[in-house]
Amino acid sequence: MAKSKVDLIYQSLRNLGALPMGQDPGDDEFEHVDGLVDPTLASLRTRDVYFLPDVDSIPDEAFIPLSHCLTWSCAAGFGQQSDVNLYQLKEEAEKHLTIQQSERPYFDILQVQAY
Q1: Which end of the chain is more exposed for a tag (fewer CB within 10 A), N or C?
Q2: Between residues 11 and 104, the one the model is more confident about
């Protein structure tokens, strides 16, 4: 079942240890992570790591790796910018997402120029 942007934000906060299970985040924490979702996804798209067409329909196989990428983007706001484990998780997640992206079929129409 596809996950939503809110699910991604909650998972990233849990990855940071800022959200205990069964609790809702504070407005400040939620807004901080929410503000970094689009830039993180844009960075992944620009670097040809992963393209997510709809942030409210995240495939299950991409959910955890995307949450690790978002977690690293948010780490500085939670004082964890020097956490090597978070960085390693992000690096592994990007490799995983790149493989997922490369194995998808593309159904683009081939453009041919006649001479």
Answers
A1: C
A2: 11
